[in-house]
Design goal:
mainly beta; Immunoglobulin-like; 2 domains; five-stranded antiparallel beta sheet; elongated; Cellulose binding domain-containing protein; CBM2_carb-bd_dom_sf
Amino acid sequence: MEATCNNADGGRVINLINNRDTAVSMDLALTGTQAGETLTTYQTDETHALEIVGQSPLTGPQTTVDLAPRSVTTLVIEADDAASCQAHVEVVADWGSGWLGKATIEAGDEPVVGWDLTWNWPGTQRVQRLWNAEWTQTGNAMTASDVGWNARIAAGDSRDVFGFTATGPAAPLEFTC
């Protein structure tokens, strides 16, 4: 097996060659990658057919790649162009058994026209009430979406988009949207 790395259009390309007659599973540490980047996996076989065999957002630098027998597998790592804004949850008040938080979105170079925020709480946090957004919580997974009037944020601006009360330990967060 051999591996080579090249730059291509701001992304990274990694070619993995399996010259064995059996499939191989490789654990890779993709240094320099960030959560939110997209990993697309292409594979050719002995007939030289090329196909996409996987595409998923990276959640960290570790990934596992399965190499077919006698194949070339190409990994393409690209930044998520859709992440044109940053968001954060700020703790406004904390009274021990619960807390008050607010979420702010900061637009990047492009305006935000409609937003959906998704994050995972780090612990036992549970939203009790949330205003100015449609929301769902399943376990630690949260999703909040605009309600129309608060969907647009001009390029370079920031806006407090919703507030909420929650139980569990207060938890400020930062993430892309």
